[in-house]
Design brief:
By secondary structure, this protein is mainly β. It is 11% helix and 34% strand. A hairpin with a 5-residue loop joins β11 and β12.
């Protein structure tokens, strides 16, 4: 597969610096991710991480998408017996790839809001699939080799969604209190005229060193369950934190956008 180089995304906000996830959060009824799963090989070379969504997210997507020779990003669809799952299975040698170390690192999600990571990582565009309804991205930490991630941009998360908003769930924190596993829904990227430049979607970031410290010698698939509160970030977060009914509507709208992508 041939990869496009990351285009630098202009930020729609003056937010800068490192985002330390804080906030009052919102109620459990708005949660969209049931758990995060993590598995690392005995040789510490291959990492599998995923978000397993609640049955409110009935996404039909399925398939695996290669990231060169390192593994790939995968999507498993919702069925009546299995939940929707999105994640990656990658060899950690990806952090040394010469094509990626020349890309400009980013501190933002595709909508210009902060990723929630302590420093910039590289965004790799894997292309559009399912008749341009889904755009897949991978994230690689070329600075310290600790973070890997993925994102899926869904075409129906468009200008009718709040652009300056990210809904995140934290599944594990490291010794400093920073998230080590983070799953998010994020709004679209729009210009000052309200025109859609890039769709919103979902994202997963995992710090494999922080997770390894937490699990010790345990191997096999390990489940991590979310903290009690969903964390809101972005310029529109204060409004939705003070308007829980509106937040519930937005959360349900995000979930519905995945379901309505049925062919």
């Amino acid at each position: 597969m041939e990869f496009q180089r990351m285009k630098k995304i202009a930020s729609v906000t003056a937010l800068a610096g490192v985002l330390m996830i804080v906030g009052t959060g919102c109620s459990k009824e708005n949660k969209f991710i049931e758990k995060a799963t993590f598995e690392i090989s005995d040789t510490l070379e291959n990492l599998r991480a995923s978000l397993v969504f609640t049955n409110k997210v009935k996404a039909p997507f399925s398939g695996g998408f290669a990231v060169k020779q390192y593994g790939g990003v995968f999507i498993n669809p919702y069925t009546t017996t299995t939940p929707f799952e999105a994640g990656f299975n990658l060899n950690l040698n990806i952090i040394y790839d010469q094509d990626y170390i020349h890309l400009a690192p980013t501190t933002t999600l595709p909508n210009g809001m902060p990723t929630g990571l302590p420093y910039a990582v590289v965004e790799v565009n894997l292309g559009e699939v399912w008749e341009d309804k889904l755009e897949l991205l991978a994230y690689v930490d070329i600075r310290k080799g600790e973070w890997l991630g993925m994102a899926g941009l869904v075409s129906l998360i468009d200008e009718n969604f709040p652009s300056g908003l990210v809904l995140s769930q934290v599944f594990l924190r490291d010794k400093t209190g920073r998230p080590a596993i983070l799953g998010s829904f994020f709004g679209p990227y729009v210009n000052e005229q309200g025109q859609l430049l890039r769709a919103g979607g979902l994202a997963l970031f995992a710090n494999w060193k922080g997770i390894k410290d937490a699990i010790g010698m345990r191997r096999g698939k390990i489940d991590f369950f979310p903290e009690d509160k969903i964390v809101l970030s972005g310029p529109e977060a204060p409004y939705y934190e003070s308007h829980p009914r509106e937040l519930k509507k937005v959360a349900e709208k995000f979930m519905k956008a995945f379901e309505t992508q049925l062919p």
